[in-house]
Amino acid sequence: MHVVKIIPVIGLPIIKDGDDLGRLICEAAAKQGTPIEDRDIIVVTHVIVSRSEGNVINLDEVIPSEFAKNVAEETGKDPALVEVILRESKSIVRIGGGHIIAETKHGFVCANAGVDKSNVPGERNVTPLPKNPDFSARRIRQRIKEISGRDVAVIISDTHGRPLRNGEINVAIGMAGIKPIRDRRGEKDLFGYVLKVKQTAIADELSSAAELVIGQADEGIPVAIIRGYSYEKSEDATAKDLIRPKEKDLFI
Amino acid sequence: MHVVKIIPVIGLPIIKDGDDLGRLICEAAAKQGTPIEDRDIIVVTHVIVSRSEGNVINLDEVIPSEFAKNVAEETGKDPALVEVILRESKSIVRIGGGHIIAETKHGFVCANAGVDKSNVPGERNVTPLPKNPDFSARRIRQRIKEISGRDVAVIISDTHGRPLRNGEINVAIGMAGIKPIRDRRGEKDLFGYVLKVKQTAIADELSSAAELVIGQADEGIPVAIIRGYSYEKSEDATAKDLIRPKEKDLFI
Q: Are residues B143 and B120 in the same domain?
């Protein structure tokens, strides 16, 4: 019997520009008695990645465009915040009911183009998504390797609303060292039936699993270690594999 | 440090019509040395629930309608299978590319209206979703309480594709004893910022987490125990809370 464990990483400092996340994660994991092991999956919330990369914007320094002002009036949002959201977007899915659903430059469709206000120090500060979340994940993975000698996978997660279902779940927006989709087509089921359509988005499932320990805002846990899950390694993993092009979408 | 464990339940027999799932789960969990505990979350894949309820259909006994024959020709599917899918559906979202995306009578939007061929014994047998998955979950929860004396939550899960993103994830289609959405609006973040929009679909995240041990088809694991996750109890829980009415959807 093979138990999968979701271990919160506690005791990380407040992350700021220039912090070496890989080193801080290794140290915090060791200090709490769960040092990083080979094949651990390290799930990191995007907001601390952006903060470590200095990707924090003070709204007082943003000059909103005319369109941003129009959208701000329509949605009741701060015009400078709308301006930041628009700068992160390559298209808009919907503006209405106080919400902006946008497609980010990376291709993710989410509220506010992923621009986050929560867990950002400074009353007027917001964080966009990391500029290149796969690259960020690779760098953290590389640092963990250098410091601990351990070969891990790293997933950068974000909280997304989704079509058709209420509530948000955590999904993967960047990754390193792990294939995001497990292609099970051709495998046989319990009774010998060959699976025809099964492709499991395990990077998203791992992100959601991590949220079970990350999602305790009052404790401020931005990182989880998932231990005991057998995954397929990949050296050129990318979260782009999880984005379905609009023209291929059957649901909408 | 509070670790969440995802424990596979191994050694269950092949489930058939009339089987007492609650009893079988208690016995298998005890036998493998992880007896059910209070506040465990038991995630059960829908296909064994349907099988235990005799909800298995032999395609040789199904007479397809004219429309089912048309759709079968369009999609390359078996006309009898299409007929079963249509009987489970209250509307069709898309027919194309060999796929049928339908809205089930319960309100779930998924491929083939949730009708499953895999993990069903008998070459011509398929399983629809349980008729009332919340009711099924309540019955399993009640039986576990009667047999073990333990107060648990039960989630019935299914594998769903989703709009905008590639790959399937496991989501909750029925539940008992657990509030499906954790409403965090009004809570404060690490820096005192009051969360405005956070409603986490924890029942879906728990289903996805369970899939990390369930999704090993070759081992045939249809049940997982999630232990160590603190959830809000609910005596009138329903998966309907996870369905977003089309008219409220901003994404599509």
A: no
- Print the domain residue range for A99: 57-126
Q: What are phi and psi of A224, to 5 degrees?
A: -130, 150
**Residues B146, B159: one domain?**
yes
pTM: 0.95
- Identity of the residue numbered A131: K
Q: Which tens digit of pLDDT belongs to each residue from B27-37?
A: 999 999 999 99
Q: What CATH number does the domain containing A159 carry?
A: 3.30.1330.100
**Count of CA atoms in the C-beta half-sphere (13 A) of A206:** 35
Strand (E) or helix (H) holding A8: strand A4-8
Please report, in angstroms and rounded to a whole number, the separation of the first and last CA atoms in chain A: 40
**Number of domains composing chain B:** 2
- What are the chain A neighbours of B76 within 8 Å (beta carbons)? none
Residue A249 lies in a domain: no
**A218 contacts B187? CB cut-off 8 A:** yes
| Average pLDDT score over residue span A168-174 | 97
- Chain B contacts of A99, Cβ < 8 Å? 250
Q: Is residue B219 over pLDDT 70?
A: no
For A20-36, how does the pLDDT look when each residue is reduced to its tens digit (9 = 90+)?
999 999 999 999 999 99
Say if residue B199 is in the same domain as residue B218.
Answer: yes
Mean pLDDT, range B55-63, rounded to an integer: 96
Q: Is residue A221 part of a domain?
A: yes
Cβ contact A217–B118 (<8 Å): no
Tokens of B79: 């006309």
